[in-house]
Structure formats: C-alpha cells, structure tokens
Design brief:
Blueprint (H helix, E strand, L loop, with lengths): L7 H25 L7 H6 L1 H15 L2 H29 L20 H7 L22 H27 L1
Helix pairs in contact: 1-3, 1-4, 1-6, 3-4, 4-6
C-alpha cells in the first residue's frame, strides 16, 4: 500500500499559512513580550498576513483549482503587505508624511485642561516616523524587515504558482 501524500498545492497552502502566521506571531510577540509599541502603520501592516492565513487555510481544504486561485490571492495579499511596508519605511526615512491621521501628534483647540485631556487617546500612540528595531545593533527597522519578508514570500509563492501553471499547461 502506497503511503498517502499531500498534494503539492495543499502543501504550499499550509506553508503559506505557517509563514504568514510566523510573521504575525513575531509582531505580536515583540509587542506583548518584547515591550515594543506598534504605531498605526504597524497595526495596518498586520492585516495582509491575517488575510493570507485565512485564504491559505481555506486553500488546504478546497479543490485544486480553487486552491490555486486562493494562493494567487495570498500572493496579492503579500504584495499589499510589501506596499504598506514601503509606505512605512518611507515615513521612517522622512521621504513623505504618514497617510494616517493617527501617526500625527494630536492638535488641541481651546477649552479647559479637562476637555483637552478628554481628547487624548486612551493609549498613547507611537509616531509612525520613529523606527522600531527588533535586533539591537542591526539597523533594519521592523517595517524594513516586513518589506523584505513580504517580498521574499511573494517571490517564492509567485515562483511556485508560475511553475505549477507551466507544469499543468
């Protein structure tokens, strides 16, 4: 009796779910256990990984044709993650201002001290232009690491999808 093997597309979908989960898990671990404070752009950059996890997990259980389409959407999700990271790195390097209003210091207009305090957010925000470094001494910010990771993820997945398409055509 031949051993059961998982089809290649499903294996790749599982690897994609694990890779996206790793990136999201590292971000969450650095926040909760590492004490790093994420900015608004950092929080936004996590969404493509969440989407990729869901799409990849669904791709594991659906027919092969649908799974390939879902993996293509995972690829698009990683390209979105890379684009968001480019924006964040540009903000950190002061190439352009942040597109998010949460990244700007609050402006207070008139009123008493109590009214001004009421306008403050419940949790202080970290400015998006202040780079966060995961590894001391390594001058690559978390946003730049995210950019490199998302690009590598997209290139590897895109290569698989291209080879799979050529193989089945």
């Amino acid at each position: 009796m031949a051993p059961m093997t998982m089809p290649v597309t499903r294996t790749v979908a599982l690897i994609c779910a694990l890779a996206a989960g790793f990136a999201l898990g590292l971000a969450l671990a650095s926040e909760y256990w590492g004490g790093l404070v994420p900015c608004a752009l950092c929080l936004l950059e996590r969404w493509p990984y969440r989407v990729a996890i869901v799409l990849a997990l669904v791709a594991i259980v659906v027919p092969r044709g649908v799974a390939r389409l879902l993996l293509l959407l995972v690829l698009v999700s990683m390209l979105v993650a890379a684009a968001l990271a480019v924006v964040h790195v540009g903000v950190e390097l002061h190439y352009w201002p942040s597109p998010l209003p949460e990244c700007v210091a609050p402006r207070f207009s008139g009123g008493s001290i109590a009214e001004r305090l009421a306008q403050l957010p419940a949790r202080p925000a970290k400015p998006c232009e202040d780079a966060t470094y995961l590894i001391p001494g390594l001058p690559i910010s978390m946003a730049a690491m995210n950019l490199l990771y998302a690009l590598a993820f997209a290139i590897v997945l895109g290569g698989f999808l291209w080879l799979e398409r050529r193989r089945t055509a």
